[in-house]
Amino acid sequence: MVMRAFDLVSAETADQAVALLAEHGSEAMILAGGTDMLVDLKHDKHRPAVVVDISRAGDLKGIEITDEGLRIGALVTHTEIMKSPIVQENFPAMVHAAHTIGAVQTRNLGTLGGNLVTCVPSMDSGPTLMALDAEVAVAGPDGRRRMTLDEFFVGPRKTTLKENELLVDILIPKKNVGKPVDFLKFGLRKGQALALVNAASSFWVDWDKNAFVEPRISLGAVAPTVIRVPEAEAYLDGREITPDATAEAARLAVEAAKPISDFRASAEYRRDLIAVLTRRTLENAYDLAKAKR
Amino acid sequence: MKHRGKGIGCMWYPIGFTVAANPSAATVKVNEDGTATLLTGTVETGQGSLTVLGQIAAEELGISTEDVHVVSADTDATPMDTGAIASRTTYVTGNAIQLAAERAKNILFEVAAPMLGVRPDQLEARDRKIQVKGYPQSALPVGEVANHAQNGAGTPAIGSASYNPPTVAMDPETGQGKPFSTYVYATQIAEVEVDDETGEVQVIRIAAAHDCGTAINPMLVEGQVQGGISMGVGMALEEEMLFDDQGRQINPNLTNYIMPTSLDMPHIDVDIVENFDPTGPFGAKGVGEPTAVATSAAILNAVYDAVGVRVPNLPATSEKVLAAIKAKRNADPKRVSAS
């Protein structure tokens, strides 16, 4: 449990970081906020010869509306998300989700990119972004590629990111900027808690028919990665917004999830929570849609 | 749906056990600059006991709390103390300190009496002075008397004492006896909100009325009560050591042994019910552990008031509360929610 010596190199830009990763290859680890990485460094599993510090890379920072949508730099901290007027205006659920992560100190240092790359199933930033069809941009020696979070997440602590690649930014597509979305987390206590279940729901409303349009439901902590629930989404799409419809979507979400039993909670209890959180996020997103109308 | 409920928990708690030796010893010396040094074997664990013990010595010597330098918990240098256990520090250690300070003070009185032309029993220690009772114009600074005690009278003002709560042995036939010196009493009322779909219990507010004898430092009493309630909230709803089949703890870290954070804490109203106890230092008893005793009972009674279920094995996690709500629904399907 003692950190081993390593060389520290610092990158000022994403391209420099990619070059440093190309130079040091599998011996290198990336340091951003360090809230997960510095803990990992104390375990024998992680003994990098080189740590590439990207925390000063200016082009990995910032929250802005571009022609493509809402761009969030990978280095943006959870606190910055909470304080961003753009995020506050468009996605209060993202502010809430960021607020549920760790403690004040973790949120001040921890980055959105780091949270996604670490890829624990209970990550609190994942469901809201997934429910908004967010994409990530990854930079590597052969240039940049974009993918959705479904494609990015592979398994617990496993993404499609290769060892010579770097997560650059997160993009919520233009068509979804302002889309009503709600996030809820249930943990064993109010602060500094791991989610037993977290969930996000998002949809537009066809007000003529009072119907769901492009519904998205995403769940965390109930499968090897944050997941979408296509069965529930397909069921809701075009359907009138009624208590029965949201209840059926919640039932389908429970069916799609594969929660485990552990010392924190039983799978049975997690299933109960999935139903409640799915239904409540749909109801809250509907309330938000009505308020925005 | 969320349901509100209120519950009451009451308790009494013993202070100063007597079934085994339970002594505290202390030494107080008065210095020639009018300050005092207190030697005590007890240890500060964050509850503020050294402040209270310094206040007891200061009050007895008629000086200010900031005049007392407390040396504690050094087994090479400080007198023996049974320890910061059993909510005994203010009562047992405090009694030893008051006695030791009184002995040092009596030396100051013996020295000051001829200087002021009165008998020692006509003197009192107040406002950093040794003065004639009812005639405070006739007075000497404590420092001057202490200096004269050392360098004139040749009787330095120092006192040592010990206190062991008086023992009454148990009658082997009847079990009767006096196992503790004194008792404190408290009532707490909890108001909770229970989510009948998740089983989540949120403690909204706790009102806590505690008898502690004389509250030597009311702000520290309040702090103790708030701290005890946080432990009580943990006991009621969150804290549990879990073991695997080999007996190894599964949750040995603060990341997975769940205890309340500041966000889990209710609003707390503390009501100190002062009640002079003639056997305690300046009437004080104690308040440490008693603060955590009534909380879980009050919370669980409030849960019952809110949703009509009892969770007999603590902690009443949201999973257990929801299971109890479901069991109640299944047993009585007409009443979807209670009360």
Model description:
With 293 residues, chain A is an alpha+beta fold. Chain A folds into three domains: 7-53, Uridine Diphospho-n-acetylenolpyruvylglucosamine Reductase, domain 2 (2-Layer Sandwich); 59-176, Uridine Diphospho-n-acetylenolpyruvylglucosamine Reductase, domain 3 (2-Layer Sandwich), CATH 3.30.465; 181-292, 2-Layer Sandwich (Enolase-like, domain 1), CATH 3.30.390. In chain A, 36% of the residues lie in helices and 26% in strands. The longest helix of chain A is centred in the C-terminal third of the chain and has 26 residues, at 267-292. Chain A is globular, with a radius of gyration of 19 Å. In chain B, strands 1-9-10-11 form a four-stranded mixed beta sheet. In chain B, strands 4-3-2-8 form a four-stranded mixed beta sheet. Chain B is an alpha+beta fold. In chain B, strand 6 and strand 7 form a beta hairpin. Chain B starts with a strand and ends in an 8-residue tail after the last helix. Chain B is elongated and about 90 Å long. Chain B has two domains: 2-13 and 181-331, Aldehyde Oxidoreductase, domain 4 (2-Layer Sandwich), CATH 3.30.365; 17-163, 2-Layer Sandwich (Aldehyde Oxidoreductase, domain 4), CATH 3.30.365.10. Classes of the chains: A alpha+beta (293), B alpha+beta (339). The A-B interface holds A 186, 188-194, 263-266, 269, 272-273, 276 and B 197-198, 200, 238, 242, 250-251, 255-256, 258-264, 317-319, 322-323.
Portion of residues within helices of chain B: 25-40%
- Beta strand % of chain B: 25-35%
- CATH names the topology of the largest domain in chain B as Aldehyde Oxidoreductase, domain 4
Roughly what is the average pLDDT of chain B, rounded to an integer? Answer: 95
